[in-house]
Specification:
heterodimer, A: 523 residues, alpha+beta, Dipeptide-binding Protein, domain 3, D-Maltodextrin-Binding Protein, domain 2, 2 domains, twelve-stranded mixed sheet, four-stranded antiparallel sheet, 15 helices, 20 strands, 22% strand, disordered N terminus, B: 317 residues, mainly alpha, MetI-like fold, 12 helices, 79% helix, 0% strand, globular
Amino acid sequence: MPFDNDHPWNAPVARRTVLRTLGSLAAASAWPALGYAQATPRRGGVLKIAAPFNPSTLDPITGGLGSDHMVLYPVFDTLVDFEPSTLAPKPGLATAWEFPDPKTLVMTLRSGVRFHDGEPFDAAAVKANLDRARTDPRSSVKGDLQSLQAVEVLAPDRVALRLSRPDTALPLILADRAGMMSSPKAVEARGKQHDRAPVGTGPFKVDKWNDNDVVVMSRNDAYWKPGQPYLDGLVFRIITDLNTGLRSVVAGENNFAYRLNPQQQVVADRMKGKVVVSSTPTIADYHLVFNYSRAPLADVRIRKAINYAVDREAFNRVALLGLGVPAQTMLPPGYWAHDSSVDNFYTHDPDRARRLLAEAGHPNGIEIQFYGYSDQSSQQRHEIIIEHLRQAGITAKLTTASSADMYQRFMVRGEGDMLLPLWTGRPDPSQPFLLIYGENGFNNAGKVPPPPEMVAAQNESQSAVDQESRKRAFAKLERLALEHALSCELAFIPGIEAFTPNVKGYVPNLLGKPKFNDIYLAS
Amino acid sequence: MTKRQIVLLASRLVQVLPVVVLATVVIFGLLQLVPGDPAAVIAGEYATAERIAEIRHQLGLDQPLWRQYLGWLFAAMHGDLSTSLITGQPVVEEVLRRLPNTLLIVCGALMLSISVGVPLGLTAATHVDSPVDRVVTTIASLGVAVPNFWFGMILVGFFALGLGLFPTTGAASLFQDPRAAVMHAALPSVALAMGGTAEIARQLRSAMIEVLGSQYVRTLHAKGLPQSSILWRHGLKNVSLTLLTVIGLVFNRTLGATVAIEAVFAIPGTGTLVVTSATNKDFPIVQGTVFVLVMIVIGCNLLIDLLCTVLDPRVDK
């Protein structure tokens, strides 16, 4: 099967510094000679995809949902691309980049690339896009570009990013929404309408988007990768019920379904022959985030008690049918930035949890406000956690509502003590620590500044240029987050996709956000 | 149309007005009770409180409720159902694009319900307490008790996934590709028809038993009319009022049941539109769609009332 070759869990992560890798990466970018493509890809055909979510918008800068990426990737190339199995940066619309000094990032751009409307992609376009991303009032990626102060056009194919502080996370941030390049002319001419009819440089152009029904894309004949894309078009049929989406693939009406649940993998596995199932690890994990700006969770002993009370193995077994990976920190085992010495930091130990509660002055147990989402599978996860906590003397009082609502109430309004969301992961490992534990991190509900040694480690992880120093910084960050019990990480979810056997060339990625750009349909 | 019928139609139309207004108040009020803030949904995961307040202001959500309601009602009277909060698309367009898909499966279900329910009910009525009657009553009870979305999944498993006779998901336009449209609508219609079939069979059975036991039927028998003529010409005409009323009710209920069935079959209809918009707090879409559906139900009731006066002159007295 095409997705078996680079299993991130087993892959020995031998990585050199970002700077030194650049040359080899640029050399390795001889498209389309990818490792998995053994047969000659066939041209033609339309890939029909069962998509579980309607996009929020089709403009990468204004949209806000983590599920939009699957629809954005085919339309927009990113400045920096990433290796699917390791998330290591590799050339995208930028062929090379370097930090001549810690506060300047210079990027060399691919020449001869044009937007779907025929406009040239050049340094001026990059400046227009990045300026829009960091200043437009509707931008949802301002937070990602906090360190970016100014963008300077050096030459038509060279652009300099001036930073307020060293930020080595930036290249991978530009592999996400912030690095997706729209035609500045179209953005200006279409205004808000660019949300619905976007113009990028990607392999596919958007023809039609009917809300909650269908997004239709057709081949960009002038695409810069020779011979690509293989497909004539993509059709995203929005089917919110995952079971129905999977059924449509089994019946052969659609070719591809993604973001399936472990329960559905069990169903899909029984349909061998009709569907191919891809199940790979991701960096997305379920976690309990705390508001430690006030009692009771301001006391580290109580946060530790929760970490000891939770049985991560059981959570994985019941909620994810054993297909996930138990988590200690937000970086999964085997991932380049993860330090394996913390793998058994918290073990399931209800007695120890009780002792910690007693030390904290609660020998008869304690009650906390547990916030959660109201959908059925979230409820199942809550029940598991509530039962684990109960066994350690912690009573979790559950309040649920829709995810958007609860997220807002917990993160912005500061209600509740604990929330159980899915953290979808970010390309650069410094981002989760900054967003969840950082003083101004959006996901730090109490906005409590992290301990000084963590701030130092965070700065180190973003200013160190060579990979080994970054790794050491991340090891420090992981250990400090665990010692201070700033959250309770539960389990990494598997990325589960099902597709018809004629779908070839699909490579799953560690982000769990499938890219359809290189797929072809065998006859 | 007689003068009397025109007067009746006019008076019914006048009566409908307060119903429509009341319905819009209820829809509007219920949505306000739903916890959550559409501005938070639009603003996305990383929104600040200021950004949310700004969106609330842009959308007019910071206005007093009565003003929001009156503004909406005034526009709705002019055929403008506002625009989606999330996408900014006109609600009317969205509803009209999806309505044909929903009406197709509802009408299909209604035709099935009538063509199966009527013979079943008649057979049971003419064979009271026989094994045939018991089978029909059991089927009718099952039809009411079994949830249609479950039955839908069973149908998909057998006829679509197993035998590959029908598509499992989606819809097609009746005008562009009639054959595909019918094939897509077949299984959802059957699933939806189950409750209606049961309802029609049960009501028709009891109404017909009553008619067949009445004195004038005894007279018809005495006159020597054959059983079939009594049943089809005299009996059916006398139960037609009941039948018509039940059909009206079944239509309205089936329209509501599409919410679950459309999800099972991934049909881009008004049912899925209401559900997804409600979860996204896209109030204008929910309001607009429910408003259109309410109008359809009111129109259907009006039509049934008129047909009743045609069939039975006593009704309008």
